[in-house]
Amino acid sequence: MLKAMLQRILVKAKTIDCNNLKKILNRRDDMLKTEWSNDYGRYLAAASDIPDKTVILLENVLLYAPADDVKDRIAGNKLFCLVCCRPSEGVHRQCASCGWYICSTACEKMECHKNECEIFAQNKVQFPPPHGWPILNKTILVLRCLLTKIYDPRVWTEFLSKLEHHSDSRGTKSVCKKSDVMITENIQYFYSTSTCPFTEKEIRTMCGVINVNAFLAEKRHETTNEKTKCMFEKASLFAHSCSPNCSWNIVFNKDESQIDSPSMKIEVIAAAPIKKGDMLTIFYSTRYAMYGTLKRIVLMEEIAHFLCKCVRCRDKTELETFMSAVKCVDCKKDYLLPVQPTDIHSNWKCLNSVCGNTESVRKIVCKICEIEDYVEGIRDLNLNIDEEVKMLSTVAKKHSGIVLHKNHYVLQEIALKVVQLLVDGGILNDKQTTFANSSKLDILLQQCKYLLNIAYTLLPAMTGYISTLETYLRHAEKIKGTICH
């Protein structure tokens, strides 16, 4: 029985090391507990002390659909199979029953397509619906979630109807309102010959539920890129933090021959030791994790529709990293930081109590934007790698500790760009690296150590980012040692 269990886990999940596998099998059912607060609503907390790198959750996907590529209209206009989520690649095979794009007879028979297929067939729905890119596939996920009200009342009552949707905030944003209207019209189109069982409010609310709670899974194949929006019942209860204590990853079925379903699971792992009673937190999106608090809060509100007040956002020093700090122009000794970091209109004040200089947030933003624009402009100069690295390094040296704190997020962005330029230029290629490149290796080593030092403190849950930098660092040290000897 144990052997069969091991085989099922290894087939369904991605490659998991033996230690993690043991933790999965031995983890206690009471590792997580659900709590409630006025600020967070329902959330998960640790029911006991949880060691670092413990697999806290391994959960099957409950509902899913292909994800829309909202940034690329050309890519977004591709058809994706409603079951396995793979792109059509020019072959537009139709479901024999409803006429929508389904890539194979195996996918046609899958349970997840059954309910919508019946609706499309009964109402003689013609593909495509009135609105395509960028909401075509989200329409399908909204419909699948709404249909649980009819076909799976437990999921609707105990899960979907209890999720946060931030309708008040979304209702003030033109992008959200336009998207919701298009999705509503698509779903009403599906019921054009019958009565739509869902109100416009229910449809709008479900758009918000998915916007706030869905996870994006991405799987790269040799010639295609498979993106899926997923809903997980337990994982949806993890609260967001900009410096979380857990990391998450969506893992796929290892058997590429089984293409009739994505067979996805979400794996949540402790990124640091967690004490009993601590809230369990994850990144909702790592896209803005490297930004300072002001920029991060503004951008997070745009995509997630709430003002983050996590431990990092409430701490003006950002856990002693000072990655938003700007040098005071009066005393020229200490740094300016926001008086109230979660208030985007807050003035910034010098940390030196003797100085006490105060600057408006507008002045701070203008200064940062000026530097960011200059850095962006370097990219547009079409320099070769050596020239661009040199110019970026000069900008960093000019501002580090003089205009910006040495850990400022703009300087981190420059360091990361330098690392990527050097790696793309082949600095880690053993055959290309010679004694003449020793100085470039020194730059790479310095920047990797600099970025890792901050990440270990602030972003332990960004395991992919940390792992990549550590790999570059080890490889560079190995090559450096070979050159020196």
The CATH architecture of the largest domain can be given as Alpha Horseshoe
The CATH C-level name of the largest domain is: Mainly Alpha
Counting structural domains, the number is 3
Helix- and strand-based class?
alpha+beta
**Based on CA inertia axes, which overall geometry fits?**
globular
Helix content range = 40-55%
Brief description of this entry?
The chain contains 17 helices and 14 strands.
What is the secondary structure topology, with strand pairs?
Blueprint: H1 2-12, H2 18-26, E1 32-37, E2 41-46, E3 55-60, E4 63-66, H3 73-76, H4 105-108, H5 114-122, H6 136-151, H7 153-158, H8 167-170, H9 174-190, H10 200-213, E5 215-220, E6 225-231, E7 239-240, E8 246-251, E9 265-270, E10 281-282, H11 293-304, H12 311-314, E11 326-327, E12 335-338, E13 348-350, E14 358-359, H13 361-379, H14 385-399, H15 409-424, H16 438-458, H17 463-484
Parallel strand pairs: 7-10
Antiparallel strand pairs: 1-2, 3-9, 4-6, 5-6, 8-9, 11-12, 12-13, 13-14
Helix pairs in contact: 6-9, 6-10, 9-10, 14-15, 15-16, 16-17
Pfam families: SET (PF00856)
GO molecular function: N-methyltransferase activity; protein methyltransferase activity; S-adenosylmethionine-dependent methyltransferase activity
Protein name: SET domain-containing protein SmydA-8, isoform B
